[in-house]
Amino acid sequence: MNSIRDLIKLCGDDPDRDGLFETPKRVLHAFLEYTEGYREDPKNHLKKTFDVDHKQLVLVKDIEFYSMCEHHFAPFFGVAHVGYIPDAKITGLSKIARTVDGYAKRFQVQERLTNEIAEAIEEILEPKGTMVVIEAKHMCMCGRGIKKSDAATITTSVHGIFENQSDKRAEFLSLL
Ligand SMILES: [Zn+2]
């Protein structure tokens, strides 16, 4: 907490004034919430699987997430679209959203977040293919430096059948 007091001083304000006195405690609690993902293994959400004879695309789109840019400790947020083509196992749709959350609530970069979600699905569900697309806005791009507040960053992670069959990728993208 002293480090947050020091930060307030370095920015040029007085950590002992009324409005800021309780701030270090509030910041600590907020950060523990932003980083809840460190205290779980997000893959575990996927481990409740069902055997189903469905071999077509399963797509969960517009999963809202909030994350924290590890370079600036500024929020970045947006939506994740997670798709996979099952082989034998499927998981509950809400479990995919929980997995996204578990990786988002860490210090992150968007590229790694995208890959970690896809790799968790690959490892646990062993599908024919996995594809994840994330669209996000970065407050570190909005509030400082170049100030491009409308810029969105899109990242993708493509595995298995999506890698070598462009019609599968096209089907995924046409549904977004
Ligand atoms: Zn940043």
Automatic annotation (TrEMBL):
Annotated metabolic or biological route of this protein: Cofactor biosynthesis; 7,8-dihydroneopterin triphosphate biosynthesis; 7,8-dihydroneopterin triphosphate from GTP: step 1/1
PROSITE patterns, per the entry: GTP_CYCLOHYDROL_1_1, GTP_CYCLOHYDROL_1_2
Domain GTP cyclohydrolase I: where? 3-175
An example molecular function term from Gene Ontology annotations:
GTP cyclohydrolase I activity
- The yes or no answer to whether the keyword Secreted is present is no
Top-level taxon: Bacteria
- Pfam families xref list: GTP_cyclohydroI
The Enzyme Commission number assigned here is: 3.5.4.16
Q: Which NCBIfam families match?
A: folE, PRK09347.1-2, PRK09347.1-3
User: What family does the Swiss-Prot or TrEMBL record give for this protein?
Assistant: Belongs to the GTP cyclohydrolase I family.
* Subunit structure comment from the entry: Homopolymer.
HAMAP family attached to this UniProt entry? FolE (MF_00223)
Q: What is the protein name given in its UniProt record?
A: GTP cyclohydrolase 1
Q: Which organism is it from?
A: Fodinisporobacter ferrooxydans
Q: What's the encoding gene here?
A: folE
